[in-house]
Amino acid sequence: MAEKVKEKAVVIGQEQIAGGIYSLVLKTRAAQTAVPGQFVSVYCKDQTKLLPRPISICEIDKKEGTLRLVYRVTGKGTGTEEISTLAAGDTIEVLGPLGNGFPLQGERPMLIGGGIGVPPMLELAKALCAGGSRVSSVLGYRSNDLFLKDQFTAYGDVYIATDDGSVGTHGTVVDAIKEQQLDADIIYACGPKPMLRAVKEYAAEKGITCYVSMEERMACGIGACLGCVCQTKDVDHHSHVHNTRICKDGPVFLAEEVEL
Amino acid sequence: MSDKVLHTEVELAGVTLKNPVMVASGTFGSGEEYSEFVDLNRLGAVVTKGVANVPWPGNPTPRVAEVRSGMLNAIGLQNPGIDVFAERDLPFLEQFDTKVIVNVCGKSTEDYLEVVERLGDEKRVDMLEINISCPNVKEGGIAFGQDPKAVEAITKAVKAKAKQPVIMKLSPNVTDITEMARAAEAGGADVLSLINTLTGMKIDIERQSFVLANKTGGMSGPAVHPIAVRMVYQVANAVKVPIIGMGGIETAEDAIEMMLAGATAVSVGTANFYNPYATMEIVDGIEQYLQRKNIADVRELIGAVR
Q: What is the ipTM of this complex?
């Protein structure tokens, strides 16, 4: 298992890349062991906000020892708003890398990201591409604020779906897949639950193996508190019920193993 | 610093802890997850997450919510049941030189007794903590902890079967906690632990709905610390049995405050979630305080403020 450390990470830089969406680069030991699909817990300086913010890893640079986190500011006075004010040279407490990450499989993988589920797909696209897979990415956005889209083009074909129809397919990522008649031998997805549900259904129809990255409110982030569980088809190995820990046993699961 | 030997051991019902720092049930699993961050050998005791006679699935999500200087949880005592616990978690804990306190939960008196009897012959279990104060389950839990007659009855029933010393864990969600403390003592409790979480609620004003699926949850974290200190002080003045104090402890200063109020040992709970090293910092911090104040024995702190 990857070594987890809680330490003060140094901010290398931060920029706003879309409305409410920020890109933060941190120098942290966690970069050395991180894999695509993992996340880190980011702690606020405001001590009245106790719990860490779990944020997915968008890019890993082992040579520079940095992680890139792309996240949404969830509102005024929130922890993510505080994090968005960090600038180069500042420090921030980070615990990670956490969770299991995506298994790297498939010759023709399809990566599906919706909204703030787009960022973790970037490192996955990079890793699969480096491994010789022919990657296609289907990205869903609310409107024409297509953050990270251009970076995905470096790793394969990119298809866009927008809620308002301003770019690409007017509709969901599954609408885009059907419209473009896309095919794949494996599917990876991260995004809101309704999207994951639709992708799971699509993958099951087509008989394609599908991995989904799940999200839930977390407290400890390391599997102790049982706050962030999701329902599983089979009895889970930890509590022997049908609730598995997203932070520790996930966030990535085979779609057929979890209830969406 | 001084090379004087510090006496950090404390005693709870004949069980000697190497120091007064333990963890609060439900915040530390059975120790495995935190063993990646802290040396469990340095803890006075590990208190496990509540264990029932059979697996419990717990509540729907969201189960946790952050509030200012605290959090709400409504996990609902998800646990694998006594069989898995005894086969998997006890052998894990046996590797460490620390005391093992098993927190026991149930929906009925019979449920509690089944677990208590099952653990009777387990040499690896040093004490039992009976959870009669969980606010997040409909049956059992707090229903046993808000009526002095019920507290005394369940304590008596457990004591009649238990082979290890019994800790009764009290709820702060009562008008007078000393009444419950006296009832537990009258029922034969060896030790009392307090406080469990305070029932709270958080509403999402954008969605105009409850943040927690369970609507209410137990509040913990530094915001509840002064309430816990007050209740430990009151209970210490009302009963003779030793007290394990908990509620919002995040630093050695908090732990020392709790001991001065009357606690023999302290449990670190929510702080583990945001600082996995909290327990170790508290063990070290208590020793530094004793040296700085020239106090040779940590027991001198217990109830020193009257």
A: 0.93
